[in-house]
Design goal:
This protein is α/β, with parallel strands linked by helices. The chain is built from 5 helices and 5 strands, in the order ααβαββαβαβ. β3, α4 and β4 form a beta-alpha-beta unit.
Length: about 120
Amino acid sequence: MVKRTGPTNIYLRKLINLLKKEGKKNNSKFWLYVAELLSRPTRKRVEVNLSKLNKYTNDGDTIVVPGKLLGYGMVNKKITVAAWRYSLNAKEKLEKSGIKILTIEDLLKANPKGSNIKIIIW
């Protein structure tokens, strides 16, 4: 039996490859680290609640969640959020709060060096 090596979701695999490629091209350790976090097994992948975003961010911050963003809590700061996946509840709350929601690919295109972006991993 062949052992799996990495995620089986084709979109996630493409995202990881893109992050590695752009990270090497732009000499950005930030995007290489995000690719490493996304490459983890499902049971070790990041899951973050909105309450953590509210606790660890300031107004105007750009945040990356290399995993799933869950809807527990509220966010009352004006931030930009990029995540691999969003729960339905989290997406609704973010839209109501007027927070800018991006995909990781969009954020990579906007900021190829990965400067001034925070990673929330716990």
